Amino acid sequence: MPALRGCMGDWIYYTCLMNFGDVSNRISFAKEIHSSKGLSDLLQRTLDESERAVDIAEYLNGVKERFFSSMVVAVYGGDPQWYEFGNITPKNDAISIEDYRPQDVWKMGFLSLSGGEHLFALDGQHRLAGIKRAIVKNPALVNEELPVIFVSHKTSVRGVQRTRRLFTTLNKKAKPVRENEIIQLDEDDVMAICTRRLVEEHPSFNRGQIAITTSASLSRDSKSWITIRNLYNILKLVFRKIEPRATTKSLSWNRPSEVELDAYYNTATGFFELLGKYNKPLGRYFAAKNNSEGIVRANRHAKGGHILFRPQGLKIVTEIISELTHEMSLEQAVLAASKLPTELAEAPYKGVLWLDEASKIQTKADAVTRDYLLQKLGKLSAERKRTLNARWKSFSGGRNMPK
Asked: 392, 368 in Cβ contact below 8 A?
């Protein structure tokens, strides 16, 4: 395999290219780092049952612009050999081999594996499982190439400890992609794509109505309606539970066609237009070319204000609308929800969702508030209704629900 030889800390490693067929056939999972068969089997079952492996296989089979980072693989046994190039003759006169340090030239070469080695993935086990699944469905993928970093593993007690430490360093300490980064950059996540488009193109969202911040909460003196993270999560509810009722996995992993993306965008704009149509303060805010700050101050202040001018309140109302759309059109659902109380300083919100003394939303009370409002609309399931009053008392200081 063509390779680069490198060193970091006390690890010597080789960065190679392997095709998917060889990756699938030659590399196994990290069961070799356990002497206990029970622990090895547990690790294998965890990977076999993982939804991530299924998602990765679907990604490989469904996305033309697919790409992976390197997989880290431990190798022991067999007879690996490193063959340096030693001497390179450039074909381009602009490059002279004498310009490069000798030690850098000797880092390029081939890594040869005899076939008797044991190879197992330390980082990238779900990618490995996904590749194994993907090529079963689509054998044409076997010739695609993946960068693989090989490190040496020894089966002594000290060697196993050293490899296990590397395994946890690569996996436990790896930082997942943050929601803010998904919103800014993800080109497969439908909510992120539509959020960016709303903020960049739509007049109800591109004039400061959406706070571009890393926080999910608004500052007390914010002039914006909601944050970009709030908008992203509202779209997640709309696309998953209202129209067209897709799964979070499909919305996040596989970029749909441009026609489908336009349909999602139109669903989003239609939802917010209906919210503004049947909730006059919000409608005035969306339409305002001047004094939108005054509308925010009138509807979000220290004494409470309108429920739709609080991110948590918007989430509650969106969840209620999503429940109602199981039995009626989106417009009928938004109209029905608009008949509910809107002032936070009044019943049923005061003392439960809205805390007067602290002048803030009690975020943990969002589910019980939503269920109370659904009950008022006659749309709460019997199972949730049985526990509702007890849950209400736990947030209201022991008071029963208002009639």
From this structure: yes
Bond before 311 cis per omega within 30 degrees: no
Residue with tokens 């509810």: 237
Whole-prediction pTM: 0.75
More confident residue, 160 or 271: 271
Q: Which of 292, 374, 368, 290 is nearest to 340 (CA)?
A: 374
**Closest listed residue to residue 329, CA positions, set 239, 242, 398:** 242
pLDDT band at residue 174, thresholds of 50, 70 and 90? low
Cβ burial of 326 (10 Å; 0-12, 13-18, 19+) is exposed
Distance CA 181, CA 192 (A): 10
Longest dimension (CA), the chain: 87
Asked whether the predicted pLDDT for residue 71 surpasses 70, the reply is yes
Average pLDDT over residues 303-325: 96
User: What is the 3 state secondary structure string of the chain?
Assistant: CEEEEEEECCEEEEEEEEEHHHHHHHEECHHHHCCCHHHHHHHHHHHHCCHHHHHHHHHHHHCCCCCCCCEEEEEECCCCEEEECCCCCCCCCCCCHHHCCHHHHCCEEEEECCCCCEEEEEECHHHHHHHHHHHHHCHHHHHCEEEEEEEECCCCHHHHHHHHHHHHHHHCCCCCCCHHHHHHHCCCCHHHHHHHHHHHHCCCCCCCCEECCCCCCCCCCCCCCEEHHHHHHHHHHHHHHHCCCCCHHHHHHCCCCHHHHHHHHHHHHHHHHHHHHHCHHHHHHHHCCCCHHHHHHHHEECCEEEHHHCHHHHHHHHHHHHHHCCCCCHHHHHHHHHCCCCECCCCCCECCCEECCCCEECHHHHHHHHHHHHHHCCCCCHHHHHHHHHHHHHHHCCCCCCC
pLDDT above 70 for 90:
no
HSE of 275 in the Cβ direction (CA atoms, 13 Å)?
24
User: Which residues are CB-contacts of 153 (< 8 A; sequence separation ≥ 6)?
Assistant: 32, 74, 75, 76, 120, 159, 163
